[in-house]
Specification:
This protein is an all-alpha fold. It has one domain. It is about 90% helix and about 0% strand. The chain contains two helices and no strands. The longest helix has about 30 residues. The mean pLDDT is about 95.
């Protein structure tokens, strides 16, 4: 089982890449809408996982 620090680090990494994907998605929307949609889909999957990580962090903090 990963430690709280590892989960928190993973959440930060997820958020970093979500922001990068969203920025590139916006930039590419006019020139390559299919790629922009793909980036949006990847960001959505990462966002779902980030939400799960945030829940795990909150649960662990409540246990402490």
């Amino acid at each position: 089982m990963p430690s709280l620090a590892q989960i928190t680090g993973s959440l930060h990494i997820h958020n970093f890449y979500i922001e990068k994907l969203k920025a590139n998605q916006e930039r590419l929307f006019a020139s390559d809408p299919e790629l922009a949609q793909l980036l949006d889909n990847v960001a959505a999957v990462l966002s779902e996982h980030a939400a799960e990580l945030a829940e795990d962090i909150a649960d662990r903090e409540d246990e402490s």
